[in-house]
Amino acid sequence: MSAHDDGSQAPGDGGWRGRYPLRLRRDPVNWERQRPSWREARPALIDAALRRALARPSGNWYVIGAARDVRSGRPLGRTVAGVELVAWRDESGRLVAGPGACPHLGAPLKDGRVHCGTLICHWHGLALDGGPFAGWEPFPAYDDGVLAWVRLDRAGGERPLDRPVLPPRPEAADSVDAVYTGFGVCEPEDVVANRLDPWHGAWLHPYSFADLTVLSTPEGDAVSDAGDGFAVDVSFKVAGRAVVPVRAVFTAPEPRTVVMRITEGEGQGSVVETHATPIGDDDRGRPRTAVVEAVVAASDRPGFAAARAVAPALRPLMRAVAGRLWRDDLAYAERRWHLRATGRFPDQG
Q1: CA-to-CA distance for 266 and 204, rounded, in angstroms?
Q2: Are 295 and 330 part of one and the same domain?
Q3: Cα gap 3→7, rounded to integer Å
Q4: Count of beta carbons in the 10 Å neighbourhood of residue 297
Q5: What is the reported pLDDT for 3?
Q6: How far apart are CA 47 and CA 36, in angstroms?
Q7: CA atoms of 136 and 207, how far apart (whole Å)
């Protein structure tokens, strides 16, 4: 079932962009009457896309979290790939990251204080200005304006890159961004596999999506294949029969990131970046992964300036929307990991 079949205009009809972004479907969305997508969602196709994504270079960069979570005056503690980290901002506002244990007696540096850009340990007052000291060595860190990254060469084991592999985004001055973080018992590849299966959207998330049609899928085996993406027509549900139809493309620029970009329709150019950061094993030996999802929304409509003006009030709502989706998607990823770990995952051939 397509949006065009139900009364909203399809691409080519001039229906992507009109005076109003909303469209009214002729009929309400009936979950059980959707066209089944399991035939098109071939396991081998999804697995091939996943394998190509996992083979791409990351340069050993991992997302820590939202850049705005690393605030002046206070350190932030994280565990990434089993490595205890601390991050803070120096006097100029530059992001600094390094081992989370004090080199003196191992105190958790996340519990220290930042004074004039210097991190001071709360056990004995050892001070770190971001440079090497007493065996403590900083890790390369990068602030892209939305997300904070750290480079862990020993954990990544790849050829290092000077900066993360970043997808194009709308300009910061013309957009509103929000970052959601969730945690699951799975590995990063299970999160990436979830996002490289666009067919599940309207079935698993009927409260958010309708009229989902996958238009094209990746072809070929080349890791650098520029056409390695899934193009989708989908309608975002607003209320009742009101929907916002868009066209989007899903790509995986590196092994722990999947990007959905709106290419036609309302919010053209907006992106949703899903980053899967390994944390380490829990006390039962199971892998844990953080899902850090950055939504960067843009629009050329005059009224969008008002949205930018109230961005701090919008961000909790944007995070709540992402959180509702990831409540289901993390269950999907956790189930996939459990089946793989117990040798019961279906054959991908």
Answers
A1: 23
A2: yes
A3: 7
A4: 21
A5: 38
A6: 20
A7: 49
Q: Has residue 325 been placed in a domain?
A: yes
Do 67 and 45 have their domain in common? Answer: no
At 76, the amino acid letter reads L
According to DSSP, residue 43 is labeled H
Q: Which domain holds residue 137?
A: 61-156
Question: Domains in the chain: how many in total?
Answer: 2
C-alpha distance from residue 328 to each of 204, 207, 219, 245, 320 (Å) = 7, 11, 29, 22, 13
Are 146 and 220 found together in one domain? no
Q: Judge if 72 and 198 occupy the same domain.
A: no
Same domain, 197 and 305: yes
Tabulate helix, strand, coil % of the chain (nearest 5): 25, 35, 40
Mean pLDDT of 342-346: 92
Instruction: Kindly state whether residues 85 and 227 are assigned to the same domain.
Output: no
Q: How many degrees, rounded to 5, is the angle at CA 190 between CA 188 and CA 193? A: 110
pLDDT tens-place string over residues 105-153: 999 999 999 999 999 999 999 999 999 999 999 999 999 999 999 999 9
Predicted local confidence at residue 16, as pLDDT: 58
Q: Which amino acid, one-letter code, is at 306?
A: A
Q: State residue 15 phi and psi, 5-degree precision.
A: -95, -5
Query: 260 vs 27, 205, 233, 293, 295, CA distance in Å?
Result: 28, 16, 12, 11, 10
Tell me if the pTM is above 0.90: yes
320, two tokens: 């709540």
For residue 18, the model assigns a pLDDT of 61
156, 183, 209 — which closes off a domain?
156
Domain boundary among 156, 179, 197: 156
Tokens of 229: 């993406």
Residue whose entry in the numeric block shows the structure tokens 């979570």: 69
Whole-angstrom distance between the N-terminal and C-terminal Cα of the chain? 28
Q: What is the CA radius of gyration of the chain?
A: 22
Q: Read off φ and ψ for residue 67, nearest 5 degrees.
A: -60, -35
For residue range 187-218, list pLDDT tens digits in order: 999 999 999 999 999 999 999 999 999 999 98
